């Protein structure tokens, strides 16, 4: 009975050209650009993705944290607005090559730093993800404590 359930949950293989790409040190089918007719993300997907980034717990606590350290409401809103503008500009600039060439972060790092240098960039991204995840876990834990 469990094997029948697992069989239903199994992802069926597709017969597209990406199945024939071999995995190597330089890439695999998950990191190469996707042909235009195979892309499924639309405006709704992008808006939903970036919207979820903006409603995380740490975003909700920025204003109260700044007021808690002594800023006025106007100063806190100004600081948040400037910070978000800077973050938006860097996200836009970082995403422009990906939007133009349809390559992800790892492949773009390889073009700038080579194969071995890109590992350093990827490890920086991994470390950043650990810090962000830890912050979210802390805020989530605080929500249960309060």
UniProtKB/TrEMBL annotation:
One of its GO terms (cellular component) is plasma membrane. One of its GO terms (molecular function) is nucleobase transmembrane transporter activity. The chain crosses the membrane at residues 43-63, 69-93, 113-133. Its main location: membrane. Keywords: Membrane, Transmembrane, Transmembrane helix. It is found in: Membrane. Coiled coil: none annotated. It holds the Pfam family Transp_cyt_pur. The keyword Transmembrane applies. It is a multi-pass membrane protein. Belongs to the purine-cytosine permease (2.A.39) family. This is Uncharacterized protein. It comes from Cucurbitaria berberidis CBS 394.84.
């Amino acid at each position: 009975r469990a094997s029948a359930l697992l069989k239903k949950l199994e992802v069926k293989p597709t017969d597209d050209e990406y199945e024939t790409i071999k995995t190597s040190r330089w890439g695999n089918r998950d990191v190469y650009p996707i042909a235009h007719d195979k892309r499924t993300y639309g405006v709704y997907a992008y808006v939903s993705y970036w919207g979820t980034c903006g409603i995380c717990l740490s975003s909700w606590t920025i204003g109260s944290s700044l007021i808690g350290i002594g800023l006025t409401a106007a100063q806190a809103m100004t600081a948040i607005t400037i910070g978000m503008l800077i973050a938006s500009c860097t996200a836009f600039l970082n995403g422009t090559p990906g939007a133009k060439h349809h390559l992800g972060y790892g492949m773009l790092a390889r073009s700038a730093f080579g194969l071995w240098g890109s590992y350093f960039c990827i490890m920086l991204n991994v470390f950043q993800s650990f810090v962000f995840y830890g912050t979210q876990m802390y805020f989530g834990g605080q929500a249960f404590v309060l």
